[in-house]
Amino acid sequence: MTITKDAVLETLSRLEIPNGEGNIVSAGMVSDPFITQTDAGAKVMFSLAVPAEMAQALEPLRVTAQTTVEAMPGVASVMAVLTAERKGGAATPGAGGPPPPPPMHKKAQPGAPSGGQPAAQSGPQGQQGPQSAARGVPGVRHIIAVASGKGGVGKSTTAVNLALALGEAGLSVGVLDADIYGPSLPKLLGLNKKPEADGRVLQPLEAYGLKAMSIGFLIAEDSPMIWRGPMVISALTQLLREVAWGSEENPLDVLVVDMPPGTGDAQLTMAQQVPLTGAVIVSTPQDLSLIDARKGLNMFNKVSVPILGIVENMSYFICPSCGEQSDIFGHGGARDEAERLQVPFLGGVPLHMDIRALSDAGTPVVAQRPSGPHAAVYREIAAGILPALQDDVSDGPTIVFE
């Protein structure tokens, strides 16, 4: 049975607005549904636009809308998100997006901070207002962000191979693709299946011993995500918190988050809503990349997320014919920057065809050639951040507005 946008909207029009002023479709709350047809059925995504101050109160309406569409014959899965925006005036500090959905388990994870919705408020200039600790993700002990100031520096490849290297060190590891607009995880891990859902909770896919989740698992590879910022934030929150990463009895040791490039909403949402153990910054040696890497590093510093270190990707190139080393993008720039900023330099990854070809084939080099020299580089990088994973989950970053 083919599911159409009109059919979804007709179904949603049966839901009345809580204040009794018509249904959610006639009131203009429902976005144009995004539908992907698969062999298992239709994957449906839509958003509900609500005032920011009512987002938490209208969370039950979002759940009802999602379950209503899920009940339609021919629908395989549904993602409904709230887009909460303030109209007019300056944004209230801390209103980084809709509140996170409730945790999957009522009991907090060992070592994870308790509490409800994170909030960041600014007091008088030069003073820090009251802060709420970021809420831990159920079933996850540590969360590491792999970030860069710009795209095209090999951040996603680094994130996946780092996760595999941490797995080789004996940790249970998951990978979250936080890039909603340009997901890379399906290609890098060779996964093209759709995740199953247990109610609202998605079951992560698995490859090479890693648990993985990406918006790319839910949409066609060539489908553009034409979403505004608040919808992206809400979707990211669901991919983070409504996934069965681990259990209270058997939590995931570390979740590696492949961040989108830049210093925008997604990065700030991660810093505000989850207790990041730290961030790994990926850059090439060239000055242009390092300028943007500094921005990413400074962003994490401003929200008090520890910098675990800098990785210099595409550090050098060894000619396969003559064996001569060529510094195509320069060499040592990231190491020098790490020394200048007094943060750890985790290692340099060469520009090599094996890394590129194996990544494109969905067989990462650490998994496919574990005894090779390139896998050894990623193991050294993993060894550099292992000390940060020895302690319990921290209370999370403090948001400071200047």
How would you describe what is shown here?
It is a single chain. The chain has an eight-stranded mixed β-sheet, sandwiched between helices. A three-stranded mixed β-sheet has the order 1-2-3, sandwiched between helices. It has a two-stranded antiparallel ribbon with strand order 4-5. The protein has helices spanning 5-12, 59-70, 155-168, 185-189, 229-241, 265-273, 287-302, 333-341, 353-360, 365-368, 373-385; strands at 34-38, 41-51, 75-85, 120-122, 128-131, 140-147, 173-177, 197-198, 201-202, 205-207, 210-214, 252-258, 278-283, 307-313, 317-318, 325-326, 345-349. The protein has 402 residues and is α/β, with parallel strands linked by helices.
SSE topology sketch:
Blueprint: H1 5-12, E1 34-38, E2 41-51, H2 59-70, E3 75-85, E4 120-122, E5 128-131, E6 140-147, H3 155-168, E7 173-177, H4 185-189, E8 197-198, E9 201-202, E10 205-207, E11 210-214, H5 229-241, E12 252-258, H6 265-273, E13 278-283, H7 287-302, E14 307-313, E15 317-318, E16 325-326, H8 333-341, E17 345-349, H9 353-360, H10 365-368, H11 373-385
- The count of helical stretches stands at 11
Instruction: State the helicity in percent bands.
Output: 25-40%
Which whole number gives the mean pLDDT?
76
Record the strand order, biggest sheet.
10-11-7-12-6-13-14-17
Strand content: 15-25%
Note the quaternary state here.
Answer: single chain
Q: What structural class do the secondary elements suggest?
A: alpha/beta
Give a count of the beta strands, DSSP E runs of length 2 or more: 17
- Elements, N to C (H/E): HEEHEEEEHEHEEEEHEHEHEEEHEHHH
Cα Rg = 22 Å
Tell me about the largest β-sheet.
8 strands, mixed
Low-confidence stretches: 85-132, 392-402
Could you say which overall geometry the principal axes of the C-alpha atoms support? elongated
Distance between the termini: 54 Å
